Amino acid sequence: MSVTRRDIDAIAKLARLDPTREEAQALAAQLDRILGYVAQLEELDVTDVPPTKHVIDLTNVDRDDALEPSLDRDLVLGQAPEAEDGDGRFVVPRVINSS
Amino acid sequence: MTAAKSSKTVRNRGCAETAAAVRDGSLTAVECANAALEEIVERDGELGAFLEVFSDDVLEDARQIDLESHENRAALPLAGVPIALKDNICVAGHRTTAGSKILEPWTAPYSATVVDRLRAAGAIVVGKTNLDEFAMGSSTENSALGRTVNPHDLERVPGGSSGGSAAAVAANLVPGALGSDTGGSIRQPAAFCGLVGFKPTYGRVSRYGLIAFASSLDQIGPLTRNVDDAALLLEVISGFDRRDPTTVDGRHESWFPTNPANPQSLTLGVPANWFADGLAPAVQGALEELLGRLEAIGITLRPVDLPHERYSIATYYVVATAEASSNLARYDGVRYGLRVRHNDDPGDTEDPTLDHSDIDAMFAATRTAGFGPEVKRRILLGTYVLSAGFNDAHYGRAQRVRTLIRRDFAAAFELVDAIIGPTTPSTAFKLGEKRDDPLSMYLSDVFTVTANLAGLPAISVPCGSDEAGLPIGAQILAPPFAERTVLEVAKLIEESSDSGA
Fold it and tell me: When you count CB atoms within 10 A of the terminal residue's CB, does the N or C end of chain B come out lower?
């Protein structure tokens, strides 16, 4: 197994990251080394072993379907990089590309 | 202020001792707060433990404690005790950066449950401490916001990721601090700085208001200068919280003050593979001396086998990065934190079709500028192990190996009350020593990640020092929710070390 710069570009796109060519090259080598180390897990036969979803036994937690105070809208919008306070909206760049 | 109450005296007191003095009136909360603030101003310049000090709030909060009636103050377990918080724990109205540029502009609109509980107990939150970005690291060198050094040797790392909290307590700036532990981030810096650091059972402490890294592993816990203080802080912060559905109900217990375990009725397991190659001679020597001392006072030691323990780092770095890649998807420049509209990096101009005005370009430009190299590396690794075609081979397999690791511990705890070994393979390493070698940095967590993978309570307690005077930590692990066992064994070690030294 060998991680290439192309692999890095593909997963970077999924992760919404944009490494430079040099960074992608370095990351490919680092991930290759780490995944090489991780590959030792393949020595184990885990066919009949269930995966650990939770380390302690948890039961589903329900709460009453009742209104509770939540964070103040203006306080929350005030933290946004861009917002229209009056309308209570976050502002983002164009989502649908017209071209 | 009388000479006896000078900051030099106040600063040496632990949490329990400080609270007792404030309760009986021999010390005021304002005196404690002032002592902490003076120490921070005087000494944190060279240590770099704090990212923010709440100078104004601290004195006001302390005054409130002093204004309480004697009766009310007598009911506060942490009356007037200055506490520092790792800067991934939210305090309403203050920045919570997680050591990252992406959260630098953000002010927390609410406080973590642990903060509410500390304050209700009378503690004074003095400020926020440095950490590896998003708690990802073992040296605090991955912080985007500053450097922290080890108070025992300013050329060395304090450990990480709770390095700021460890340095603040070890240098006596504050008597106690909270950190978070995903793979050893409380215990490893505690060992490197000569402190007690306790990662509780998964589910014991609410993570509401903790910036998430790996949700199946993260726990908040105390860093203190003695075992009793760790017991006291944990007692205050633990318990069910409806805002964190992973907290366990009906399990709130009292651990303070902690009595030492009865050596005659105690069996400790010693995993042979923890004493194999790779352990620094000084660490090996200190642990062997400790085991000899414990045996001499009547504790039964027996070897235990943890056959899958050697797969723990590989398992951990699949599980933790997978969860991190998911948790950190929320930092997108839309609702809070940093937003970068354009990637101005000249290295990126090679693709002329890229439209920098759309939302995808904003996401990528924001995340690329906002995250540091280690965080990006882990997000990419996590994305890789979860990606189509690899999910089963990597993440699925790691989750199954995690079951095998848990079974090893369950089998061992049939035979012994607790397991003892080193916290770290070496003492504190030099600044920069492992920075460029991620795998070597990851391997420094080799003894600590298993407790997170299995959800077990685990403590690091000082047990000597190497030839250069750098602290060494012993680690104790017990079955889920056996915090009492962990603390009692730690107390026994603390007492045996005191008399042995």
Answer: C
> Which chain A positions have a beta carbon within 8 Å of B246's beta carbon?
54, 56, 58
- The segment with the largest mean pLDDT, out of A55-69, B250-264, B333-347, is B250-264
Which bin fits B72, alpha (ψ -120 to 50), beta or left (φ > 0)? alpha
Residues 6+ apart with CB under 8 A from B180: B86, B88, B89, B135, B161, B162, B186, B210, B213, B218, B219, B220, B221
Q: Residue B91 and residue B40: Cα distance in Å, rounded? A: 19
Strand, coil or helix: what is B346? helix
pLDDT value of residue B26:
95
Chain B contact set for A84 (CB, 8 A): none
Smallest Cβ–Cβ distance between B339 and the set A38, A55, A82 belongs to A82
Q: Is the dihedral of CA B3, B9, B15, B20 positive or negative?
A: negative
Q: How far apart are CA B166 and CA B151, in angstroms?
A: 9
- Please choose, from the candidates B130, B107, B124, B122, the residue with its C-alpha nearest in 3D space to the C-alpha of residue B51: B130
> DSSP strand E in B29-89: where?
50-53, 82-86
Strand, coil or helix: what is A33? helix
C-alpha B83: how far from chain center:
14
pLDDT 10s digits, B28-40: 999 999 999 999 9
Count the residues in chain A.
99
What are the residue numbers of the active site of B?
86, 161, 185
To the nearest 10°, the Cα dihedral for B125, B98, A55, B224?
A: -40
* B396 burial type by CB count under 10 A (0-12 exposed, 13-18 middle, 19+ buried): middle
CA distance B421 to B474: 6
**pTM for the whole thing?**
0.95
Q: Say yes or no for a CB contact (<8 Å) between A16 and B363.
A: yes
pLDDT at B349 over 50: no
Six-digit token string for B420:
């003892």
Q: How far apart are CA B378 and CA B382, in angstroms?
A: 6
Cβ contact (<8 Å) for B480 and A94?
no
Exposure string over A62-94, b if 16+ CB within 10 A, otherwise e: eeeeeeeeeeeeeebbebbbebeeeeeeeebbe
- Strand order through the sheet with B176-181: B50-53, B124-129, B82-86, B176-181, B219-224, B196-199, B458-465, B471-477, B418-422, B267-271, B300-304
